[in-house]
Write a structure and sequence with these properties.
heterodimer, A: alpha+beta, three-stranded antiparallel beta sheet, 8 strands, B: mainly beta, 2 domains
Chain lengths: ~270, ~260
C-alpha cells in the first residue's frame, strides 16, 4: 500500500514537471507568434525569438526540476568548478552574443547593405546571434564575429541615397588651370549620371613633385556610383588628350647649379 | 492645336512600322504577329512641332540595333497602340534661368514647365513608359544625408503662361505664390511633386498639371505645399489626360515644405 502511495506521489510529480515543460513550450510558441506580428527586421526577430525561447525554456526546465524535488542550488554548487570552466570557455560566445544584441539595437547596417570591415567589402547576408555573414563581390563568404564588428571601423556604402565620386588627378605645371577647371566642369555638366545638386567641386590639393594635384568631386545616385566614376575617367582622359592637357608621369629634373660643374653629356653613334 | 497633340490611338497594321518625333525623341513602333517592337532615340534638336514620319519599307536595320524593346502580347487583333503623356515619376526641381524675387505681401503666379513621359499601351496594357527627354537627376534636401532624389529641369519661370514658345513635350504648372513675409523672397529653386499631380489638356492642346500653392507666413516660414484639387485654374475647358502616379500622404506633402529653398 505504501509503495502504491509512493508511486502515485512520484507520478504526480512527473506529471507536474511535464506540465510545466509543456506550459513553457506553449509560452514560447505564443511569444513567437507575437514577434512575427511585430514591426521588426528579420534579424531582430530571429535574435529576440532565440533569446526569449532560451529564457522561457530555461526557466521552465529549472521549475520542472524543482517540482521533481531536485534542489538546483545543490546541483549548481556541486557543478561549481564545471560552471567556472564553462564560463571561461563560453566568454567569447557570450561576448559575441551581447555584441549581436548591441548591433541589433544600434543598426549601423541591415541585411542587403554593402559594408567594408577592416578591408573586407561585401553585401550583408545575415546578422546572426554570434556573427555577421558577408558575401564579397568575388563571391566569397566571409564570417565576422559580432564582437569584431562592434570593435571595428565599419563603413556602410549603401546607407545614404547619394555618394560622391572623388577623382584625384595631376596636371603638368605648364597647364592653364582655368582651362583645366572649365574642361572638368563641362564634362560633369554633360554626364547624365552626375547630379546637378550637390554641384561638382574642384579642390587643388597642392603642388606635387611632378604635377599640380587636383581633386574633382561629382555626386551620383548610389546605384550609379561606379558607372559615373568609370565614365568620368574615360571622358577626362579623352578630353585631355583632345585639348592637349598633359597628365604627367612622375619625373625628376637634374639641375646643375652655378656651384656645380655642368652635367656631361656624351653623344654616341647613331643617336 | 493639331500640331501640339502627339498623343492618342495610332493604328499600326501587322508588318508595318510607324515613327513619330516628339520634341527631341524619335520613336519607332513595329508590329508583328503577336509582337510589338519599340525603339527610341534622343537628340539635341528639340523640334517644337510633333510629327509622324513615314518609314520606308524594308528598313530593318533599326530592329537589329541594341536597345530595341520587344513585347509579346499573344494573338491579338488590336492593331492600335496608344501614346499617352504622363508627368514625371518623381518630383521635379525647377531652377529658373535667373533668380526671381517675390516682393513682400504679394500674391502671384509663376509658371514652370516640366518634362513629360510618354506611355505606350496596347489593349489597355502598358508596354513601356519613358521620358521624352531624359532629365538629369538632382538631390533636393538640406544636406546629402537628408532629402530625396528628384529630376532636374531648367525653366524660364514665366510670369505669364503664354509668354514665350510652348513646347508640346513639356507640361506647365502654375505655382500660386503668397508671400506674407516682410522681406522679398528669392525664388531660385523649387521642387514640384509632379508625381502627385494629374495632367490635363486645354482646348488648344497645351498640357497642364494641377496647380500648387506655396505660402510664406509673416515670420518667413513656409507652409506645407498645397495641391489645388480639380483642374488647373489658369485656362478653362480642360480635360484630364492622365491621373496622378502616386497619392499624396501627410509625409509626402510635409517633405515638400522645403520646396522653396532661399539662399
Amino acid at each position: 500500500m505504501n509503495d502504491l502511495l509512493h508511486w502515485f506521489r512520484d507520478a504526480r510529480l512527473v506529471i507536474e514537471a511535464v506540465g510545466i515543460l509543456l506550459l513553457g513550450f506553449l509560452l514560447t510558441r505564443l511569444v513567437g507568434r507575437q514577434l512575427k506580428r511585430a514591426p521588426l527586421h528579420a534579424q531582430q526577430r530571429l535574435v529576440l525569438l532565440r533569446l526569449s525561447n532560451a529564457i522561457i525554456l530555461g526557466f521552465a526546465v529549472a521549475t520542472a526540476l524543482g517540482a521533481l524535488g531536485l534542489k538546483l542550488g545543490v546541483l549548481l554548487g556541486a557543478a561549481g568548478v564545471a560552471t567556472v570552466a564553462l564560463g571561461f570557455a563560453a566568454q567569447t560566445s557570450v561576448s559575441n552574443l551581447i555584441s549581436g544584441v548591441f548591433l541589433m539595437v544600434e543598426q549601423p547596417f541591415v541585411v542587403g547593405d554593402v559594408i567594408d570591415v577592416g578591408g573586407i567589402t561585401g553585401e550583408v547576408l545575415s546578422i546572426d546571434l554570434i556573427a555577421v555573414r558577408l558575401r564579397t563581390f568575388d563571391n566569397v563568404l566571409a564570417r565576422i564575429p559580432n564582437e569584431t564588428m562592434l570593435k571595428a571601423n565599419v563603413k556602410n556604402m549603401t546607407h545614404f541615397q547619394i555618394r560622391r565620386v572623388d577623382m584625384k588627378l595631376g596636371v603638368a605645371y605648364k597647364e592653364d588651370l582655368g582651362r583645366v577647371k572649365a574642361t572638368l566642369f563641362e564634362l560633369a555638366e554633360r554626364n547624365i549620371l552626375a547630379l546637378r545638386d550637390p554641384a561638382p567641386q574642384l579642390q587643388y590639393l597642392g603642388f606635387g613633385d611632378s604635377s599640380i594635384d587636383i581633386q574633382f568631386s561629382v555626386w551620383a545616385a548610389r546605384p550609379h556610383f561606379l558607372d559615373l566614376r568609370n565614365s568620368l575617367y574615360e571622358e577626362i582622359k579623352k578630353a585631355f588628350d583632345e585639348k592637349g592637357i598633359e597628365i604627367p608621369f612622375p619625373h625628376r629634373t637634374l639641375y646643375a647649379g652655378s656651384v656645380t660643374l655642368p652635367i656631361p653629356v656624351k653623344m654616341t653613334e647613331g643617336a | 492645336m493639331a500640331s501640339r497633340v502627339w498623343w492618342g490611338e495610332k493604328r499600326v497594321p501587322i508588318g508595318s512600322t510607324s515613327r513619330w518625333r516628339i520634341g527631341p525623341l524619335s520613336l519607332w513602333v513595329h508590329r508583328r504577329e503577336g509582337e510589338w517592337r519599340v525603339a527610341r532615340e534622343e537628340d539635341d534638336d528639340a523640334s517644337d512641332a510633333p510629327t509622324e514620319i513615314a518609314v520606308p519599307e524594308g528598313d530593318d536595320n533599326l530592329w537589329s540595333r541594341a536597345g530595341v524593346l520587344r513585347y509579346a502580347l499573344g494573338a491579338t487583333h488590336d492593331d492600335a497602340i496608344t501614346l499617352t503623356p504622363r508627368l514625371a515619376d518623381r518630383a521635379v526641381v525647377a531652377k529658373p534661368e535667373r533668380t526671381l524675387f517675390i516682393p513682400p505681401d504679394t500674391d502671384m503666379s509663376v509658371y514652370v514647365s516640366s518634362p513629360l513621359w510618354v506611355s505606350l499601351s496596347v489593349s489597355g496594357r502598358e508596354l513601356a513608359s519613358f521620358p521624352v527627354q531624359t532629365p538629369w537627376e538632382t538631390w533636393f534636401g538640406p544636406s546629402p544625408r537628408e532629402g530625396e532624389l528628384c529630376w532636374a529641369t531648367r525653366t524660364a519661370c514665366r510670369l505669364r503662361w503664354d509668354d514665350g514658345t510652348y513646347r508640346p513635350h513639356r507640361a506647365l504648372t502654375a505655382v500660386r505664390v503668397q508671400n506674407r513675409a516682410h522681406q522679398a523672397m528669392p525664388f531660385d529653386k523649387i521642387k514640384i511633386p509632379v508625381n502627385l499631380l494629374g495632367l490635363y489638356v486645354a482646348p488648344d492642346g497645351t498640357l497642364w498639371s494641377q496647380d500648387v500653392m506655396l505660402e510664406t507666413a509673416a515670420d518667413g516660414t513656409l507652409a506645407p505645399l498645397q495641391i489645388q484639387q480639380g483642374p488647373p485654374g489658369t485656362v478653362g475647358g480642360l480635360t484630364i489626360v492622365s491621373d496622378p502616379r502616386d497619392q499624396p500622404t501627410e509625409r509626402t506633402l510635409a517633405r515638400a515644405i522645403g520646396a522653396w529653398l532661399p539662399h
